[in-house]
Design a protein that fits this description.
heterotrimer, A alpha+beta (153), B mainly alpha (246), C mainly beta (441), A: 153 residues, alpha+beta, C: mainly beta, Rossmann fold, 2 domains
Chain lengths: 153, 246, 441
């Protein structure tokens, strides 16, 4: 009985360690296991979302870094079209948020176009406040919801 | 204003596209940093924000301007009335009813403010009024009583007396309501609220079961206030019928 | 008391009895504009003659009680048990239980239809205050009950009733990150709930045409990268069509009072402007041209003006313009952001959502922007809609979500004084209420 328990504990520890090393690998682009040029590559190593301040559609400095990486990647993998989805937090009215999401998506589009990505490769869409990720009613959730998500096609 | 905004908007669109065109055609020209498309986009966004801010400020200023204009017209009407009264040798009291042609109709039962008395009295009155509207009857009653004690000859005293009665009435304190309305009718007979005081006195008497007295009061109404509003007159007729007055 | 507009409905005819005008009386009348008033105590006796009589009486009781202006006395307190529709009740026995009015009714057969006579007796003066007769198919008994409740409401308040109406809304279900939102329509009291869209794609902001035959709403496409658009759908046949052919996304639709036009927002290139669309001819016209967000347009009751929401001045505010575009002027100048303006069907007020200091409120202002009053507030309240009498509003309320649990979303109503607020029960979570006009007869 006691021996079985010990064995379990060892296995559990090994699983935890494996999980840790996986995370480290994901964070280091050089040793990534995802295929370069894949959707997973884009999400993990480039970053598919940029975040906004309350009621704003100006791309922040952290967002510019992400969009710069997106532009480089898209120039390399020209087979992809993209749709930029604009989203809002729940602290606005439904109809206005559809418009604000569109404005946010368009802000990222203009930035990518300025970086040399042809406008014809970029579609925009707004989900307003209808698609929270993560759902939640605190500032942390709202900050994650005020976002653009770049989806590859 | 809208036309101004539209013009700016189309000018901005043109500005953006021409700047972007220059930036894309001359990527390696001297001072390329200045014509970097990202830089152009930034400048465009900044200008856009400035326009938005200015639009908001213009709207606010127009609004304030309009309010000042209304206030001015109101004051002018008051001055003209007082001058007119002085010329006729009747002293220069404030114009009854505040008389602001340009002023919008008041949303609440608050009477028009008087320009004659000091800010302190007006403040007292309006504080009490606010309490009444907020449902704080006890506070409103204290407020109106304080106002009446220190400013019994103020242009709004008749109104204060009336609203004091209304507050009691709303709380079903009909004895006090009766006293307040009676006082309002007796002391401030010529006030704009005179007819209301008398009407409400009758209604309160009827509620207290003193129908004969109520009928007498209603009879007095048409004698004292032949120029009351149609609404008030209709209400009196209604009350007379209801209480079986002869 | 005659109600000519109602007297011919559903093939019915007004009762001759009680036609003489009865003067207004304090006890069986109510002035909604007074700062204080007590709900009118009213006794509604089960209608005699048919089993459905008790159901009709229940619907009438429920309608009147829910208006906040009436107190429906419990039938168990009634002393007179042998009251009938053809003879006056024994008034002292009703006075004794504190009733100001008594409603009695009789259900009869008329060639496959049901015929309902009802009378409202003024207990205080001992006279009939209203009396009407209606004929209808048996299946429509609920509508008959609502029409009777409307007649009582009108007799007592002097305002048109709003009980014979429907509410369209968005039925919500599922977790916050995969929410199903479908359009539903129910009677004003929650009965006859049915779903108009299947929930495969997200559909929001339903609005009725003046005849209630059609609704407009915004729905997403099956493909996630297809922009959402405005659809026009026939309520009975379910047939739906895309409204307009615009490059960007279209949303925030609303019918003109005569039903010939729909106004909506079109977003493209980061700009959102207001467009008008002719429902039959499909001609489309741009009404605003700003580089900002212009949305939530709503016609004035007479169709000559449009109120909308714009952030052209830096924050969301309300603006009014001519219905043909132009002459735009800002009307809201208070603290905070203003959104979703809706013009009262009576033309006296504009209701709106206000976001200020971290909380949401529902308020009204006069059409020139003056006289602002807040009627309800909370963590998130949004989307007012007027009952056809312009004296009651519905809106929705959302509770905060926490620990992965989506906060409840519920419909509510409030009267224009803000005194009486109640939840409108729905089978699921619900948002975006749209109150219909009175059902055409």
């Amino acid at each position: 009985m006691m021996r079985t328990f010990k064995a379990f504990a060892v296995i559990a520890a090994m699983i935890v360690m494996a999980a840790c090393s996986n995370q480290q690998e994901a964070a280091a682009p050089a040793t990534t296991t995802v295929t370069p040029g894949s959707v997973a590559d884009f999400r993990q190593n480039v970053g598919d979302r940029v975040f906004f301040d309350t009621d704003m559609s100006v791309i922040r400095e952290d967002g510019r870094q992400t969009l710069n990486r997106q532009a480089e990647w898209l120039k390399k993998y020209t087979q992809y079209q993209i749709t930029i989805e604009g989203h809002c937090d729940e602290r606005g009215t439904r109809e206005y948020n559809f418009a604000l999401g569109e404005r946010r998506a368009n802000a990222a589009k203009q930035y990518l176009v300025a970086q040399g990505i042809p406008a014809a490769r970029i579609k925009t869409i707004s989900f307003g406040k209808e698609n929270p990720d993560p759902p939640g009613s605190d500032e942390a959730a709202w900050a994650r919801n005020r976002r653009d998500v770049t989806a590859l096609q | 204003m809208a036309a101004f905004e539209r013009q700016l908007s189309s000018a901005m669109k043109f500005f953006r596209s021409s700047l972007l065109a220059i930036a894309l055609v001359l990527p390696t020209a001297a001072g390329a940093q200045r014509l970097d498309p990202v830089y152009v986009e930034d400048r465009f966004n900044q200008l856009q924000q400035s326009i938005t801010m200015l639009t908001g400020q213009i709207e606010q200023l127009q609004y304030r301007n309009q309010q000042l204009q209304q206030q001015l017209e109101k004051m002018q009407a008051d001055y003209e009335y007082r001058l007119d009264q002085m010329e006729k040798g009747r002293g220069g009291g404030p114009r009854p009813g505040g008389g602001a042609k340009a002023a919008a109709p008041a949303p609440s039962p608050a009477p028009p403010p008087s320009a004659a008395a000091g800010g302190n009295a007006d403040q007292l009155y309006h504080d009490a009024m606010k309490k009444l509207q907020d449902g704080d009857n006890a506070g409103a009653e204290r407020g109106f009583k304080a106002f009446l004690q220190s400013h019994s000859r103020h242009a709004l005293a008749g109104n204060a007396q009336y609203w004091l009665g209304e507050s009691y009435y709303a709380r079903r304190n009909y004895q006090n309501a009766m006293t307040a309305f009676a006082e309002g009718y007796k002391t401030y007979k010529a006030s704009p609220k005179g007819p209301d005081n008398l009407l409400k006195l009758g209604i309160t008497l009827a509620v207290l079961g003193r129908k004969a007295d109520a009928c007498q009061v209603f009879a007095k109404f048409s004698q004292d206030y032949p120029r009351a509003t149609d609404l008030q007159k209709r209400r009196v007729d209604q009350e007379r019928r209801k209480n079986g007055c002869g | 008391m005659m109600l000519p507009r109602r007297s011919t409905i559903l093939g019915g005819a007004a009762l001759a009895a009680g036609a003489a005008a009865v003067p207004a009386r304090a006890q069986l009348t109510i002035d909604m504009t007074r700062p204080t008033f007590e709900p009118v105590p009213i006794a509604i006796v089960d209608f005699a003659g048919d089993r459905v009589g008790a159901d009709i009486a229940n619907v009438v009781r429920n309608d009147l009680q829910n208006s906040g202006l009436f107190r429906s006395l419990p039938p168990s307190s009634f002393i007179q048990r042998d009251v009938n529709a053809s003879t006056p009740p024994r008034f002292p026995e009703w006075r004794q239980i504190g009733a100001a009015g008594v409603v009695v009714g009789q259900v009869g057969q008329a060639g496959g239809n049901i015929k309902v006579d009802f009378r409202l007796w003024d207990v205080v003066v001992g006279q009939q205050a209203a009396g009407l007769s209606f004929t209808s198919q048996p299946a429509n008994w609920r509508r008959l009950a609502h029409i009777i409740a409307d007649a009582i409401y009108k007799r007592v308040t002097g305002e048109e009733g709003y009980f014979d109406t429907r509410i369209a809304y968005v039925a919500e279900s599922g977790p916050g990150n995969a929410r199903v939102k479908r359009i539903a329509i129910m009677d004003q009291d929650g009965a006859n709930n049915r779903y108009i869209t299947d929930g495969r794609t997200l559909a929001v902001t339903p609005r009725f045409s003046p005849t209630l035959q059609e609704i407009v709403y915004m729905a997403f496409g099956e493909n996630r990268s297809t922009p959402p658009r405005v659809y026009l759908q026939n309520v009975d046949s379910g047939r739906r069509e895309l409204l307009g052919n615009f490059p960007g996304m279209s949303f925030a639709p609303r019918f003109s009072p005569d039903g010939t036009k729909v106004v909506m927002s079109i977003a493209a290139d980061g700009r959102t402007n207001i467009y008008e669309m002719d429902v039959r001819g499909r001609a489309q016209r741009q009404l605003t041209n700003s580089s900002a967000i212009d949305t939530s347009p709503c016609f004035s009751n007479d169709g000559t003006q449009i109120v909308f929401n714009s952030d052209r001045g830096g924050s969301q505010q309300l603006y009014v313009m001519s219905a043909s575009g132009g002459g735009e002027r800002r009307i809201s100048f208070g603290e905070g952001r203003y959104a979703t303006p809706v013009w009262s069907p009576r033309g006296d007020w504009i209701a709106f959502t206000k976001i200020s200091g971290g909380s949401f409120g529902i308020g009204v202002m006069r059409t020139d922007g003056g006289g602002e009053r807040m009627l309800a507030s909370g963590f998130l309240v949004e989307g007012p809609t007027w009952a056809p009498n312009g004296r009651v509003l519905a809106y929705f309320r959302q509770q905060p979500s926490s620990a992965g649990r989506t906060g409840a979303v519920t419909l509510h109503q409030v009267d224009i004084t803000g005194r009486f607020e109640r939840q409108i029960p729905t089978p699921t979570d619900a948002s975006d209420p749209a109150w219909s006009p009175l059902i055409p007869q």
